Amino acid sequence: MTEYHALPAQRLSGVVCVFQPAPAKRVTLQSPALDIMTDLRHSHVATIGPNESIDLANLYMKQRGVRSLFVISGNHTLQGVITATDILGEKPMRFNQERHLKHSEILVSDIMTPLNSLEAISMEDVRHAKVGHIITSLCNAGRQHTLVMDHESNGSVIICGIFSLTQIEKQLGKTIPLAEVAKTFAEIEATVISN
Questions:
Q1: How far apart are CA 21 and CA 1, in angstroms?
Q2: Which of 29, 76, 120, 188 has its CA 20 to 30 A from that of 20?
Q3: Is residue 4 part of a domain?
Q4: Where is the CBS domain (predicted)?
Q5: CATH number for the domain including 71?
Q6: Across-strand partners of 161?
């Protein structure tokens, strides 16, 4: 390793602070939707293989501090999405009853939402949307997450972003009750403002 040299180090003294990341940006319903999108082009994507156990998927979500994982095949293509709700909800129990398997034998592919059941919003639409539009879209679909897609120069579809209701709630500083499925931007605004 003769081509490398040690970098000079300085002894610390006095008042030294540790860098703290800026808190999540506060948004309103009128803020641009891009302010609340997790841009996958600039962050590490949490993934898992379809043949892994749901127990491993749950552990991985806890370690990463996320509530969903992209299910990626060996050739790096999207196969589906698995969420904490999938793992901790009724899906595994129903699968156990149908197949007579132990919980530890259930695979991600057994309970994930497969690709052909996923929906995504176009990046072009997101560029012109407000936070309220995204909340309305999530509520109408009854979902905690929605994907954002764009097109590569060769025409292939790529998932480039994700919206998470949990993240939106943090940035709004308000709870958004999915049970009260508000259908319009005005209903969403009334619900969020009254909380």
A1: 35
A2: 29
A3: no
A4: 37-98
A5: 3.10.580.10
A6: 39, 148
Share of the chain above pLDDT 70, in %: 89
Which residues form the domain of 102?
33-190
Q: Which residues contact 161 (CB under 8 A, 6 or more apart)?
A: 37, 38, 39, 40, 41, 123, 126, 147, 148
Say yes or no to pLDDT of 3 above 70. yes
12 part of a folded domain: no
Pick from 108, 111, 99: nearest CA to 56: 108
Predicted pLDDT of residue 78: 93
In a domain, 73, yes or no: yes
- pLDDT, residue 190, reads 54
Q: Are 159 and 148 in contact (CB under 8 A)?
A: yes
Which residue shows structure tokens 């931007």? Answer: 185
Judged against a pLDDT cut of 90, whether residue 70 lies above it is answered with yes
- pTM over 0.85? The answer is no
